[in-house]
Design a protein that fits this description.
single chain, 6 helices, GNAT family N-acetyltransferase, GNAT_dom
Length: 218
């Protein structure tokens, strides 16, 4: 009987990425309490599909199972974003829906409420993009932002993304009701893309504007 050798599906390496202010690394059990606090923030609930309320069991499942499987099953990679000096959890960068044939993937990101306004999302996503293009030789990074999520759109613009169009009525966001609950609402998605050549000069421009620069990965 003829036997066929199968090629294992590709996966991203188990890495950490460092910038002047941040370390992007795999999640650890110790991240659980900060993850719960971040995921229960109103802005995170409104613009993402995370469970609400976000419980200790949700955090444990994410850290131990869901996040690692993104990498080991070839779908992408999840990185916890932490402050270099304090090790405090700043947010998440998530590469997902990876297409290994076209060398394209989609990035999502979340920032803790205490860390907003410091340029951390821009710094973290830019570092991930540089690693993706230079080390992994990818050709396309895609972002999708809800039409009213201006903060997320600003991150896309700062790292040099190009707006490609609108997916009408393509996402379900959440809005808070008068009684303190949450209701689903449909919204458009703006599609952005970043190609390797789009990064030319972006890091220098951000450095001039006071953002920390990408430095190393391992």
């Amino acid at each position: 009987m003829e036997r066929h050798m199968t090629t294992p599906f590709p996966v991203f390496p188990d890495i950490s990425i460092s910038t002047d202010r941040l370390v992007l690394r795999p999640f650890e059990d110790a991240d659980g309490p900060a993850l719960i606090e971040m995921m229960n923030d109103e802005q995170v609930v409104a613009w993402t599909a995370v469970p609400h309320p976000y419980t200790a069991r949700d955090a444990e499942d994410w850290v131990r199972h869901l996040a690692p499987r993104e990498r080991t099953e070839g779908r992408g990679i999840v990185l916890a974003v932490t402050e270099f000096l304090t090790q405090r959890l700043v947010g998440i960068v998530h590469l997902q829906n990876t297409n290994w044939r076209t060398l394209a993937t989609e990035v999502g990101y979340v920032v803790a409420p205490w860390a907003r306004g410091e340029g951390y999302a821009t710094e973290a996503v830019l570092a991930a993009a540089q690693w993706l293009f230079r080390d992994q030789r990818f050709e396309r990074l895609e972002l999708r932002t809800a039409a009213d999520n201006t903060a997320s759109q600003q991150v896309a613009q700062k790292i040099g993304c190009i707006s490609e169009g609108v997916l009408r009525n393509a996402w379900i966001a959440r809005t808070q009701t008068e009684d303190g609950g949450w209701a689903d609402i449909r919204t458009d998605l703006i599609v952005w893309s970043l190609l390797p050549e789009d990064l030319d000069g972006v890091a220098d421009q951000l450095a001039d504007a006071g953002y920390a620069s990408f430095t190393d990965w391992n």
